[in-house]
Design a protein that fits this description.
Elements (H helix, E strand, L loop, with lengths): L1 H4 L4 H10 L2 E13 L4 E14 L7 E12 L2 E8 L2 E4 L8 E15 L2 E13 L2 E11 L7 E8 L2 E2 L3 H4 L7 H10 E16 L11 E13 L8 E11 L2 E11 L2 E10 L7 E11 H9 L4 H8 L3 E15 L7 E15 L4 E13 L2 E11 L2 E10 L2 E11 H7 L8 E13 L10 E7 L4 E3 L15 E7 L3 E8 L3 E8 L8 E9 L12 E11 H8 L14 E11 L2 E13 L2 E7 L3 E8 L7 E11 L1 H4 L16 E11 L2 E13 L2 E10 L3 E12 L2 E12 L2 H8 L5 E3 L2 E10 L11 E13 L5 H4 L6 H7 L5 H4 L3 E13 L2 E10 L3 E10 L4 E10 L5 H8 L2 H14 L1 H4 L4 E8 L3 E7 L9 H4 L1 H4 L8
Parallel strand pairs: 29-30, 30-31, 35-36
Antiparallel strand pairs: 1-2, 2-3, 3-4, 3-5, 4-6, 5-6, 6-7, 7-8, 8-9, 9-11, 10-11, 11-12, 12-13, 13-14, 14-15, 15-16, 16-17, 17-18, 18-19, 19-20, 20-21, 21-22, 22-23, 23-24, 23-25, 24-26, 26-27, 27-28, 28-29, 31-32, 32-33, 33-34, 34-35, 36-37, 37-38, 38-39, 39-40, 40-42, 41-43, 42-43, ...
Helix pairs in contact: 14-15
């Protein structure tokens, strides 16, 4: 009808066609009056299920019910409907489903266009009740309309709020923030205000007002990506013009209680950042959770990943979140610590009673003079940023008493005192190439600490040794580097199966000397390097460790050690290289030195019939180490000597290679048994056995055996025992014993029996005792003191065909029985005693020349021509038989060095009277040496 009336302009007709009106009109009325210049019209009607499509900026309506009246200058509209919907494409993102609508709307044409007004628009949309007032001024000539909308709404779910907000007139960044910010919770009420020219929005010059204001309850607020959400928030949220303000009085974030939190953005469309400020008051562990759930984790992970904290903290926190991608997040915080606790689980270190203030800014943490305690000692903590790292420094005392209490070990009893120390914790750089490692170091000069251990670890309290411990800790490993002056350095590695698991010792190298330690291959705890002097007895005494127990207590299980001087059993072994591995309760490996070279096997427990096994290639002893008969003190005792199985392919004493050595010692309840002592070479053979008995605290030692040599002279010369004997195959039987330990073998207390048989040798220079072992008479001295010249007999030494003798020893007194020397020139017999302790002699020596051709000359020299002639005559008559009676007898007394020699007889002077007493040693048949 309107289209046919020509009352509408072409534009209005087009708009009417676009509106596509539908529905039902009831009780309609329409009047038209044509004036001189104007056309006047009026229309009223009721409508039901009215639907209108959107035309330009007008909304589309669906299923509206009401009534309306209008003229060409104005009109009104009453709406009372339910189940309707309205769509403002320019204002809301989706149609609003209207459960209930009551509205009174009027419009009036004025000089500026059309003014639309409503004092009451009551909507129930999705259970949210709103009440609005509307003023809208539409201008001609494409001028943007002016609008004034005031809306109040009741309780709602915060996640539904964004769909009811006029997003069409809001910046995209604000819309995005609103869509993501309110995750859950309730809205107790709020309002919306828009007043101003639509073209001027968002009113940066305050030309108008845009405001959204609502209150939330128990809301989860997602204020920024990658940051922990605020939970249980009760806040006032306000969007005003281009800005945002959120003021919360309660809530929590990452488990921390929130107080007085404010979120602000001055310009969501063009601004640089959104700021969050507030106060967290809770356990400091919540602050760690906040760091871990935010981008700050990259800055603080070195601390949060490797430490645990507890205790109350109050933090003033400010976060500046960029609204533009090129800017970085800024976080500043100021925290007050009150009796907090910081644990390093991987290191077993706890810092307690932490009190003070620290700040967090662009360069990280910063603090001065925080007070704390660790291991019972007070600490002063400073935190700064150095060289791109966050550095925590704690200054305090290293107290041995505190360390021993925290880490119980028997080793602490060897150290006392305390010394100043500096603990430095270096957090990793953000994104650094070194990875997520926490670096710690402990420095001290140890002044004030004494170490009661043998060298090289001994230290007096007043001395200084610059020492340092460095630790590198990540989620699954701990690496320690130790430096103790020039004495020791080490590297120790601990590992865990997974992050935050308990770390276990994996491998280590404890390195002596200045060269650097290196981790061994495989799982091993190695002792390596070089030590100048190692005194075994001193270390055993210091550690109170029995020689019959060699257990390493599961610690060191690999050796690669060079020892300049190894002092053991009062002996000094030089240039020892010791290598070994600990496995199956025993050490085994190689030892190399100028004196000892070969393989060893050393069980843990030597009290259960296990033996130390030494399979040597060579054993070299000096002359002094070879034989000692001077006794003296020694650290040896029967209970400290284990079972020993020793073999050496070569035993060398001095320059003499004595051949293959076998020694088998067996520990018994009260003493020691020498089951086998043997030496075997092409020229020499020794076979002996012995015992060391301890009864009621009294020691007694004995050795029994036999010895044979193809050249006793060579053996004595090469071993340095004597140089005046040449050649001489010999057999010897001995059975000796003495009070005391074996190492207290002394000529003063020696007892026993010795039997010797030697052949075909030469005494190059007969001197006392053949090297003062038996104290035999020097025939060279006889020659000088007597008027008898034996030069024709002994001018190149005394060659002999055979020597036989027996010696009975009692407390150092030697009884010589049947000792005789038979040479091509003479028989020499010895009887008497020697005192080994006092080195005195009391002997009767008989010399009988075997060639009587020399006797007349000798007789002439001593008894005159008559005696000489008579002797010569007897010789011719008696022949060789007389040779055995024509002897010379001497009594030798005094000391070995200066004996007094008296001639008792001379040829022709009752020589036959001495047959029974003097010549018995010559004619007594010798028993064979016991083999």
């Amino acid at each position: 009808m309107l289209q046919a009336s020509e009352l509408l302009t072409d534009k209005q007709t087009k708009q009417l066609n676009q509106a596509k009106l539908s529905g039902q009109l009831d009780n309609g009325s329409f009047a038209i009056r044509q004036g001189t210049n104007d056309l006047f019209w009026a229309a009223c009607s009721q409508f039901n299920q009215l639907s209108v499509q959107a035309v330009e900026r007008t909304p589309s309506l669906n299923n509206f019910t009401g009534d309306a009246c209008s003229t060409q200058k104005g009109g009104w509209l009453n709406l009372q409907t339910d189940g309707a919907s309205i769509e403002f494409k320019q204002l809301f993102r989706q149609p609003l489903k209207i459960n209930e609508l009551t509205s009174q709307l009027s419009w009036l044409k004025n000089d500026g266009g059309w003014a639309i007004h409503s004092d009451q628009v009551a909507l129930n949309v999705g259970g949210v009740k709103t009440s609005s007032r509307l003023q809208l001024q539409l201008f001609p000539a494409n001028k943007k309309p002016w609008m004034n909308i005031q809306t109040q709404f009741s309780k709602a779910n915060v996640e539904d709020v964004p769909q009811y907000l006029p997003v069409g007139i809001m910046p995209a960044r604000v819309v995005k923030w609103l869509d993501e910010a309110f995750i859950s919770g309730g809205v107790s009420g709020g309002g919306f205000l828009f007043r101003g020219d639509v073209a001027d929005f968002p009113f940066r010059q305050h030309e108008g007002v845009f405001q959204v204001l609502f209150n939330t309850e128990e809301t989860t607020l997602h204020y920024a990506d990658h940051w922990p959400d605020a939970m249980g928030v009760s806040a006032n949220v306000e969007f005003k013009n281009e800005g945002l303000s959120v003021v919360a009085e309660k809530g929590h974030v990452a488990g921390n209680k929130l107080e007085h939190v404010a979120v602000n953005a001055e310009d969501l469309g063009r601004g640089q950042s959104l700021t969050i400020s507030g106060q967290l008051t809770d356990d400091i562990s919540g602050l760690y959770r906040f760091f871990e759930g935010s981008p700050l984790h990259k800055l603080t992970s070195g601390l949060t990943d490797h430490t645990k904290v507890s205790g109350q903290v109050s933090v003033d926190l400010n976060i500046d979140i960029p609204l533009r991608k090129k800017r970085a997040v800024k976080v500043t915080a100021d925290a007050i610590l009150n009796n907090n606790r910081l644990n390093f689980p991987g290191l077993g270190i706890a810092v307690i009673n932490i009190n003070g203030r620290f700040a967090y800014g662009e360069t990280g943490l910063k603090a001065n003079s925080i007070k704390a305690e660790a291991l019972g000692e007070e600490l002063t903590i400073n935190i700064n940023h150095e060289g791109g790292h966050q550095v925590i420094k704690a200054m305090g005392d290293i107290n041995i008493a505190g360390l021993s209490k925290k880490y119980p070990s028997a080793m602490w009893k060897h150290a006392t005192g305390h010394s100043a120390g500096l603990l430095t914790v270096k957090l990793p750089k953000q994104g650094g190439a070194s990875g997520n490692h926490l670096a710690l170091s402990l420095d001290s000069n140890l002044k004030g600490i004494s170490i009661n251990l043998p060298d090289p670890m001994a230290k007096k309290a007043g001395s200084k040794i610059v020492s340092r411990l460095d630790a590198k800790l990540d989620s699954t490993s701990l690496l320690l580097n130790i430096k103790h002056g020039d004495i020791l350095n080490g590297i120790v590695q601990f590992k865990g199966d997974r992050p935050a698991s308990q770390l276990r010792l994996d491998k280590a190298d404890i390195h002596l000397g200045q060269s650097m330690a290196q981790l061994p291959q495989g799982k091993a705890i190695q002792l390596s390097g070089r030590i100048q002097t190692l005194n075994v007895e001193a270390w055993q005494q210091a550690l109170k460790k029995s020689a019959l127990s060699t257990s390493s207590n599961g610690l060191v299980n690999k050796l690669n050690l060079n020892i300049g001087h190894l002092k053991v059993l009062n002996k000094d072994f030089k240039r020892i290289h010791l290598m070994g591995d600990y496995d199956h309760s025993a050490w085994s490996g190689q030892v190399t030195s100028p004196t000892v070279s070969g393989h060893y096997y050393l069980p843990d427990d030597l009290t259960r019939n296990q033996a130390v096994v030494l399979e040597l290639d060579s054993l070299v002893l000096t002359k002094q180490q070879g034989i000692s008969i001077n006794g003296g003190d020694s650290p040896l005792s029967a209970e400290r000597i284990p079972n020993i199985d020793l073999t050496s392919q070569s035993l060398t004493i001095g320059e003499a290679n004595l051949g293959q050595l076998t020694l088998k010692l067996r520990h018994k309840k009260k003493g020691l048994i020498i089951e086998d002592l043997s030496l075997l070479s092409e020229q020499h053979k020794l076979q002996a056995k012995g015992a060391w008995d301890v009864k009621e605290g009294v020691n007694r030692s004995g050795l029994q055996g036999q010895f044979s040599s193809q050249s006793l002279g060579q053996l004595l010369q090469t071993t340095g025992l004597a140089t005046k004997l040449k050649g001489t195959p010999a057999d010897m039987y001995f059975d000796l014993h003495w009070p005391g330990e074996p190492h207290k073998f002394s000529k003063k207390q020696l007892n026993g029996y010795v039997k010797i048989k030697a052949k075909e040798g030469r005494l190059l220079d007969v001197e006392p005792g053949i090297g003062r072992i038996f104290g035999l008479l020097s025939l060279n001295t006889i020659q000088r003191r007597l008027q008898l010249n034996f030069s024709d007999l002994f001018q190149k030494g005394l060659s002999f065909d055979e020597v036989n003798g027996e010696f009975l020893i009692l407390n150092g007194d030697v009884s010589i029985d049947n000792l005789s020397l038979e040479s091509p020139a003479a028989y020499v017999g010895f009887e008497g005693e020697l005192n080994l302790a006092k080195e005195t002699i009391d002997q009767l020596v008989t010399v009988i020349p075997k060639t009587t051709e020399t006797l007349p000359l000798a007789g002439a020299l001593i008894g005159g021509p008559l005696v000489g002639a008579a002797t010569y005559l007897v010789q011719k008559i008696a022949g060789k038989t007389l040779n055995k009676f024509a002897g010379y007898q001497y009594h030798v007394t005094g000391t070995w060095a200066d004996a007094d020699i008296k001639q008792l007889s001379k040829p022709g002077d009752k020589v036959f009277g001495f047959v029974n007493d003097i010549l018995t040693p010559v004619f007594n048949p010798q028993k064979e040496v016991v083999q």
